[in-house]
Design a protein that fits this description.
14 helices, six-stranded mixed β-sheet, binds zinc ion, alpha/beta, binds 5'-O-[(R)-(carboxyoxy)(hydroxy)phosphoryl]adenosine, 2 domains
């Protein structure tokens, strides 16, 4: 821990945060008001469309795109922060027909960069960057940019674990509200007084699946994690099995949603905590898929997860359907059956996640439950978790806090973004945990603790 450039500590904190752990090039600026962090800008450029047909990220393609977009994205984040354009402005890849590529912005006009450079020179006090885990080629692009900026401007740098960033994304809504109606806002007072700790965080993305007990800012225990595939990875693999594009999560979610709308209009079924889950009778509920997949290691008494067996169960089912119907490819399976498979898969995931999370809530009595990571964009999973928590609270389980909060990121911050990295960095700065550019290291396998 090195405190450098002490002159800057007197200025109001303004963090330029950079995140490039996977296929996004992201930058954000976090400021401070009334002793609270506020998101001043949040820019994301994604190369996801370039990976749609390969069934997964092609690392070299991702990092080449990041090289192209790094400077424009950082510049846009700096400019937006000046005008406090807080809402995440998606700057997508040119291949995405629906959104403007960075190159369509006025990046060739020198004013664009001079305004950004002015912000960088005059207002930024800290640089934050994702140091891992992630794809090494991608991490290096953002990390090197951050190091160079810290060196050139003689600013402290805060290397952040990507998973810690996801934990903080769930607090973003609170920070945004704090900026708008800070005074007399109970919700914010709660956060300020750190009434959310201990918080139990279920963080689920394409690269990790974890239950983390946040005892305080920077004080974490991992109480469980996947022993094989991450949930997002399982979604992506099941999508590929069904001939759907990457990323598979939203595709599977859409099919499952169609099934539920068809069967049960808008009602969600509540995963029961009481029934025997291994091939359990939950499927007999009206709104459940007629197909049933296993709930791996749900009853093993730990808070760990396993999803590779579930993926294999889907593969076996898909092959059986193909054989029975003389199909050459899974793409030829009729849409109705695909929807049933997607819904059955999502039910199995929801049951395992909710069962283990509620068990952990009973054990650790957290004041807040956080659901974060790319997969937290999934509406069904969010609703299943909320309903299971409500059900457990209604059962008046003694160890469950009656006013337990449920926190999840705003949609634009569920996937990878730099605002979450900046928010996490803000609390590192409060603890004096900042570094010098020459001492920080990138690590593709960086551990949370
Ligand atoms: O956090 P994230 O953007 O990147 C990683 O750190 O991995 O998470 C990406 C993952 C992908 O596996 C993607 O399929 C999944 O999140 N995902 C979803 C949904 N949206 C994204 N999974 C399920 N349902 C969704 N709606
Ligand atoms: Zn992520």
């Amino acid at each position: 821990m090195v405190e450098i450039n002490t002159m800057n500590t007197k200025k109001t904190i303004r963090i330029l945060a950079i995140e490039t752990s996977c296929d996004e090039t992201a930058a954000a600026v976090i400021g401070e008001e009334n002793g609270q962090p506020v998101i001043l800008s949040n820019i994301i450029s994604s190369s996801v469309n370039l990976h749609a047909e390969t069934g997964g990220i092609v690392p070299e393609v991702a990092s080449r795109e990041q090289m192209k977009y790094m400077v424009p994205v950082v510049s846009q984040a700096l400019i937006n922060s000046k005008h406090e354009i807080r809402n995440s402005k998606q700057i997508q890849n040119p291949n995405d027909q629906n959104s403007k590529p960075v190159s369509d912005f006025d990046i060739r006009i020198s004013d664009f960069y001079s305004e950004a450079i002015f912000e960088l020179q005059n207002n930024i006090t800290h640089i934050a960057v994702t140091a891992g885990p992630g794809l090494i080629g991608s991490l290096l692009v953002g990390f090197n940019a951050a190091k160079t900026l810290a060196y050139a401007r003689d600013l402290p740098i805060i290397p952040i674990n990507h998973i810690e960033g996801h934990l903080y994304s769930a607090l973003a809504e609170e920070f945004k509200i704090s900026n708008l109606k800070f005074k007399n806002n109970d919700k914010i007072e709660k956060l300020k007084n750190e009434k959310i700790f201990p918080a139990l965080a279920l963080t689920v993305s394409g690269g990790h699946t974890m239950l983390v007990l946040m005892k305080n800012h920077g004080d974490y225990d991992i109480i469980g994690q996947t022993i094989d595939d991450a949930v997002g990875e399982a979604y992506d693999k099941v999508a590929r099995l069904l001939g759907l594009n990457y990323p598979g999560g939203p595709e599977i979610a859409k099919l499952a949603e169609h099934f539920r709308n068809r069967v049960h209009s808008t009602q969600y079924s509540v995963p029961s905590q009481d029934k025997n889950p291994e091939y359990c009778e939950l499927s007999t509920e009206d709104s459940r898929s007629p197909i049933v997949f296993p709930r791996p290691i749900i009853n093993d008494g730990t808070f760990n997860f396993s999803f590779s067996g579930l993926k294999t169960a889907v593969l076996v089912k898909v092959k059986k359907i193909m054989a029975e119907n003389n199909l050459q490819s899974a793409t030829d399976i009729n849409l109705r059956t695909k929807e049933e498979i997607a819904a059955a898969f999502e039910e199995a995931v929801a049951d395992v996640l909710t069962f283990k999370t509620v068990k952990a809530v009973e054990k650790y009595s957290p004041r807040a439950v956080i659901f974060a990571g790319g997969v937290s964009a999934n509406h069904y999973l969010v609703e299943s978790l909320k309903l299971s928590l409500d059900t457990a609270r209604d059962r008046k389980v003694k160890s469950i806090e009656p006013d337990i909060q449920f926190l999840t990121p705003p949609k634009e911050m569920s996937g990878d973004n730099a605002a979450m990295i900046g928010l996490a960095a803000y609390y590192h700065i409060q603890r004096g945990d900042v570094s010098d550019w020459s001492s920080v290291k990138v690590d593709a396998n960086l551990k949370l603790i």
